[in-house]
Amino acid sequence: MISNFLQKIIYCPNCQKELSIKKDTLKCLNCQKQYLLVDNIPIFLDINLKKYKYLKNLPTENPFQYALHFWLYKKYIVKYLKPEPENIVLDIGCGLGHCLNFLTKFSENLVGLDIDLPSLIYAQKTTGANYVLGKGEKMPFKDNSFDKLISFNILEHIQNDTLAIEEIKRVGKNGATVLVMVPSLEGPRSQSKLKKLMHTEESENERHYRDGYYLENIKKLLNEKGIKVVRAHYTMFIFAELFTEFTKIFYTKKQKKYQRQTDLFKVADSKLFSIYKRFIPIIGKLALLEDCLFSGSKKGHALVIKGEIQK
Q1: Tens digit of each residue's pLDDT (9 = 90 or more) over 87-97
Q2: Contact predicate 119/41, CB 8 Å
Q3: Does residue 21 sit within a domain?
Q4: Could you count the other beta carbons within 10 Å of the beta carbon of residue 267?
């Protein structure tokens, strides 16, 4: 059974009306459309459940908590998002739930949205958040539901990013904080072939519809759609970028395809990854130092944007 908290904020994405719950099914009281519940995850996409292989022998540690990006995510969640216990927080494109797991330190009212069911099943089993299968372009949440919203390296995966931004504004409350990170097109290695490594998959989960954004363009888009940009700057400079490219090379040597985040589980079982885990705290601190030194003056591999919803 899904939590009472989640029941209050979801609705039928087809007609925007209330849902009733009966066993493993959600039913719209207006259009009568039904939605399945799988492992207490509301399914708001038309998917073939038979093609999904349920995860076995799940790793005890989320491999993404050792990603270099995650060190920067945590920094800006604390610095810019500033979550508080009473906040209702949405992670758009939450994947394996590593950011929401970090956010459990600050709030209990956490929701993750993603289009990949295996990733959400893992996240549901390993974190203290609520999860929903749905698209960012048509979110199954009522208007004005969230106090804080994050979107980390997701907009480039969404074909209609403008519609997704409009949805962020709709489901966020007036004055809600929005924290966005996207790839930059202006960093010193923005045209590197290694940057695009693992970005050419045709699977819906990991497909890239664009390589990134120019700072002024993404600021203009957010402002025009009612999300006032409060802070915006670059991150992921030379050291962090080169290290990320190195880890991509290592991954593709071990596994040729990357179609969903659960694919990382195979690499996470390797001996080399266990060695990598020992050194990533040092690497992460160096990346944070680089970020502190250059985020106000240099162009980097990624953009960090803090916005405020205005209605």
Answers
A1: 999 999 999 99
A2: no
A3: no
A4: 19
CB 9 within 8 A of CB 142: yes
CATH number where 115 lies:
3.40.50.150
Q: Tell me the C-alpha distance between 97 and 262, whole Å.
A: 11
CA torsion through residues 284, 285, 289, 290, sign: negative
Residue 197 counted as domain residue: yes
- Which residue, 48, 21, 16, is CA-closest to 34? 21
What residue numbers bound the domain in which 299 lies?
40-49+58-309
Helix residue ranges, H only, the chain: 4-9, 68-76, 98-103, 117-126, 161-171, 215-224, 238-254, 264-268, 271-294
pLDDT digit string, tens, across residues 131-141: 999 999 999 99
pLDDT digits (tens, 9 = 90+) for 95-121: 999 999 999 999 999 999 999 998 999
Number of domains in the chain: 1
Q: Other C-beta atoms within 10 Å of 17: how many?
A: 12
Q: Does 33 map to a domain?
A: no
Question: In this structure, what token pair is assigned to residue 161?
Answer: 């990013």
Q: How far is CA 51 from CA 47, 117, 204, 230, in A?
A: 9, 11, 14, 43
> Which residues, listed in sequence order, are joined to residue 278 by a DSSP beta bridge?
none
Give the separation between CA 91 and CA 143, rounded to whole angstroms. Answer: 16
Rounded alpha-carbon distances, angstroms, from residue 229 to 177, 218, 307? 10, 10, 4
Distance CA 263, CA 307 (A): 32
Question: Alpha helix locations (H) across 238-270?
Answer: 238-254, 264-268
**In a domain? residue 126:** yes
Residues near 202 by beta carbon (within 8 Å), at least 6 away in sequence: none
pTM across the whole model: 0.93
